[in-house]
Amino acid sequence: MSQCKSRASLFIMIALVAGAASATAEAPRLDLVWVDPTGIASRTFPAVAAESRALLAATGAEVTWTAAPCGAVVGPESLVVIAVPTYSRGPNRERHVMGATRTAADGALAVWVFPDQVAWALGLDLGMRHGWGERAEVDFARALARVASHEILHALGATTHSLSGLMAPRLDRNALTAAVLHIDAATLASLRLVFHGGARSAAGAWTPSLLRGATVAAAEELRAAPGSSH
């Protein structure tokens, strides 16, 4: 009987250790919300979400995307990605900024993408979108996803740019539309450290405010590199 109890205790200990290891290895969950208040990037969300999930899979995170309906209120457990046009007169237009990430003093985060500048990088005119073909629409959605994913990685804690790949400071048409665009090893390593030392919200998601803390960060911008069409 004593031997049976010892074996039962051993099995329980093994189960507890296995359970703890499984909990530790659980992938962080990132809840991303797409907001397009003016409809500037209409009809792109399914492709943007799919491409972004594929890109961000390299971080080891479980990524979910939701398109917010007009007027929706988004809670702090989600990172909001907002598609907005650039001002007709402003620095974004002259410098062709495709995306930006900023933090507020309380740690809240938002990511902006500027679809008109993404179109410019592709050699497209967003004002003439009604005449685009299917290939142009596919390229536009893929490029938007890559710009958004670049800025999401900044929001999660990637503080520097890389020489090439998704986290380069400038992306041209080739990078925005290539079949594959990698995330450099240094960026992935820094994000894994963030996930390892971070905290979860009550709902289980890794929130930007918890990951970055109550700090103020300089703007992280991604600019378009002109191609042959410019």
Brief account:
The protein has 230 residues and is an alpha/beta fold. It is 40% helix and 16% strand.
Q: Going by CATH, what is the homologous superfamily?
A: Collagenase (Catalytic Domain)
Question: What is the 3D shape?
Answer: globular
Summed over residues and divided by their number, the pLDDT gives a mean of: 77
Ends apart, CA distance between termini: 83 Å
Number of strands: 7
CATH topology: Collagenase (Catalytic Domain)
For this entry, what is the oligomeric state of its chains? single chain
Given the structure, what is the number of helices?
8
Number of domains: 1
* Estimated share of beta-strand residues: 15-25%
Query: Biggest sheet: strands side by side, in what order?
Result: 2-1-3-5-4-7-6
The helix-and-strand class reads alpha/beta
> CATH architecture, please?
3-Layer(aba) Sandwich
Q: Largest sheet, if any?
A: 7 strands, mixed
Radius of gyration, Cα only, in angstroms?
A: 21 Å
Instruction: State the share of residues found in helices, binned by percent.
Output: 40-55%
Describe this structure in words.
- With 230 residues, this protein is α/β, with parallel strands linked by helices.
- The protein has one domain: Collagenase (Catalytic Domain), CATH 3.40.390.
- Helices cover 40% and strands 16% of the residues.
- The chain is built from eight helices and seven strands; from the N terminus they run αβαββαββααβαααβ.
- The chain has helices at residues 2-24, 45-56, 91-95, 115-121, 134-156, 173-177, 185-197, 208-212, and strands at 29-35, 62-67, 79-83, 97-103, 109-113, 170-171, 220-224.
- It has a seven-stranded mixed beta sheet with strand order 2-1-3-5-4-7-6.
- The longest helix has 23 residues, at 2-24.
- Residues 1-24 and 206-219 have low confidence and may be disordered.
